[in-house]
């Protein structure tokens, strides 16, 4: 499925986001290799934001049960009734002992955060990537530009997602006292204050900036290898997205363990570490993880994290690229006179 030359809107496709208005009268081969990701300027922001929101909602909705398992497997001192050896076994045990819907508790707050967060995330990435590529590697693809663009997009994404992550992870923990997102928000606000929703923000950024840099650089690199013309190719988006997510997830697992500890404030673990009050700060989280579990503690839940991130990023990129293609094609068809 491609925007082919000679068809509806083919000249409009030729107009690039970076302002390069190449002659639309080239050969079919030239138009076919035109980067479909470079959308018409007037439609780019709304298209990126809408496609990004759809990708974020679908990604987090589909993978949420695995995310619930990942949160529990990263517990530093789990309840004996909540100890798991693998993702599939954990899901079976949770459903059998806590009910069919238990792995989905907190999904509503995640959807509320994922939509706007991913809308800003992809829109910022696309626009920053285009701008920085012009600076670093004119009319080419610079891995440095992709990495910086991903890092900048993460700042916006995490500012929206961090409160949702705090609520979501507290609801996911075994024997959580929170039965609804609203009650969790009220309890955290009343007992810990507004700052609790951003207690792990610095750690989240410390984790997600390298994660997203690795993720975007790897994705764009793999796209150059398997989809050099950058046409709409679902298989290439799934493969590139999945491999990029898996590599980035494995590399940043230690930071994710620390983030989970800061978000959940796991009481039993903090008591064992003789920590009174609330744990804050990435450095303190790193020390606490090492104190309780040594070096292996930094890699708790890595299997679940990779199993979660690999299909998550594959879903996210394939959905995003599909809706970007769909909305762009629709806009171009509506602009073309008959």
Automatic annotation (TrEMBL):
Solcar repeat boundaries on the chain: 43-131, 141-225, 232-326
Entry membrane topology: Multi-pass membrane protein
Entry keyword annotation includes Transmembrane: yes
Gene3D superfamilies: Mitochondrial carrier domain
PANTHER family reported for this sequence: MITOFERRIN-1, MITOFERRIN-1-RELATED
Family of the protein in this entry: Belongs to the mitochondrial carrier (TC 2.A.29) family.
Function, in words: Mitochondrial iron transporter that specifically mediates iron uptake in developing erythroid cells, thereby playing an essential role in heme biosynthesis.
Name the record gives this protein: Mitoferrin-1
Lineage, opening ranks: Eukaryota, Metazoa, Chordata, Craniata, Vertebrata
